[in-house]
Request: fold
Amino acid sequence: MRDFDVIVFGATSFVGQIIARYLATHYSHQDNVKWALAGRNQDKLQNIVKALPSKHNTKPSLIIADVNDNASLIALCKRAKVVLSTVGPYAQFGEPVVRACIECDTSYVDLTGEPQWIKAMLDLYSKAASESQAKLVNSCGFDSIPSDLGVYFLQQQSQLRFNKPCTNVAMRVRRIRGGASGGTIASMLQLVEEMGRDKSLRKKLANPYVLCPNNHRMSVRQPNIKKACFDDHTQRWIAPFIMAAINTRIVHRSNALLGNAYTDHFTYEEALVTGKDTKGAMTGWMTTFGLGGFMVAASVKPLRGLMEKYWLPKPGEGPSEKAQQEGFFDIYFYGKTDEGDTLTVRVTGDKDPGYGSTAQMIAEAAIKLAKSEKLQALPGGFYTPASCFKDALFGPLQEHAGLTFEEVTHTVAKTKVKST
Ligand SMILES: NC(=O)c1ccc[n+]([C@@H]2O[C@H](COP(=O)([O-])OP(=O)(O)OC[C@H]3O[C@@H](n4cnc5c(N)ncnc54)[C@H](OP(=O)(O)O)[C@@H]3O)[C@@H](O)[C@H]2O)c1
Reply:
C-alpha cells in the first residue's frame, strides 16, 4: 500500500506546474486518484498550490525532496506507486531518481528527450530494474508518445486490414504550433555539450538502434532526413524534424521490446512538412540551415553563452498560457507492407505539443500505470510508452488528454487483388 498513486516530482518546473494544474482540474481523492506534489523548495511549492484550481476544494499534499539527498528520494519513492519526474535536464539530475525508484519498487514516468541519458540508465540499471517491480517508462511527453503510440496504432490497423505489419513507416508533421521552455533548451544544450566532451557519443547516438536491447536482430539501414527535399508521401517539401533524434530511437526500441512485432527489417523516419512549391522549398531549406546553425552555435561556448543570455528561455520559462491553448499538432504516418499495401493514420493534439499537450499525456500515463492492475503486474524494467501501455493508453489520451488517433485511408496492393 502506498500513500499516493502519483507523486509529481519537479512540480515547480515549467511543465510540472502545468501538470499540477491539469491534475487539480481533473482529479481528486473523490475521483479515486491520490496525487501529491514534490520538489526541493517548500515556498515555491506552496505558491504553486495557492494558484491551483481545486476540483473538490482539496489541496494536494507537498513532499520535499532533493536529487542531492538520497534519503529524501527514498522517502518520496516509498510513498508513491508512480513517480512522475520532470526534474531535468535528466542527464544532470535524473539518475538518483531512477535509482531510488528501482530500490523502492516504485514505477516511474518521465519526459526525457535525451537518448544519451536513457542509454546510460539502460546500461547501468537494466538488471537491477528487471529484478525489481519498478516499471520505468521514459519519454512520455510529445517526445515520444505521439510517435511511439502512433506507430503502434498504425501497426494494429495494419494487422486488422492486411493481417501483417507495415515494414516501412514515414511520419510527417503536417502542422504544428508551439514553443520551447528553458528546461527543454537546457536539455538540448546539455546533449551538445556532452557530444563536445565525448567525441564517440555522436557516433553512438547516430546508431538508430542505440536504445535497443543487445539481441534486437535488426541491421537494416534506416532512412534519415538530413536536409530539405520533396516528399512523395505528402507531395510537399519536407525538412529535418528536431525530435526525430529521440523519437526514432524510442520507436525502434519499442519494436525490439515487442519481439520485432514490426519485423526485423522495419524502417522508420520522421520529417517536418514545410509546404508546397517555392515557398515550401524555401521554408524547408531555412529550417535545415536554422537547425544546423543552432547546433553549431550551441557547440561553440561563447556563442552558446550569448544565446543563453539574450535569446533562449531560462529554466522555469516557457510559452504563455495563450500560446499553450492556441498550440496544436497534426501528424500523419504513412505505412507500407512488404506486399505494397498502404495505410495512413493520423494523430492530433489540442494544445501546444511541448507543454499543454505533454502535461496531459504524462499525467494520463502516470495515472494509468498506477491504477491498472495489468500494468502493475508487468515485470520490472525499462519500457517505452508502446511496449508498456500497448493499447491501454488510447482511451485516456483520447477521452481526457485531447489526442486523437484515426485511420485516414488504406489501399490493398493491386497484385494481391488480382490473385484473390
Ligand atoms: N518530452 C517532452 O516532450 C518534453 C516536454 C517538455 C519538457 N521536457 C523536459 O522536461 C524537463 C523539464 O522541463 P522544464 O522546462 O519544465 O524545466 P525547468 O522549468 O527548468 O524545471 C527544472 C526542475 O528541476 C528542479 N530541480 C533542479 N535541481 C533540483 C534538485 N537538486 N532537486 C530537486 N529538483 C531539482 C527544479 O526545481 P526548482 O524550481 O526548485 O529550481 C525545477 O522543478 C526538461 O528536461 C525538458 O527537456 C520534455
Q: What stands out?
A: The radius of gyration is 21 Å.
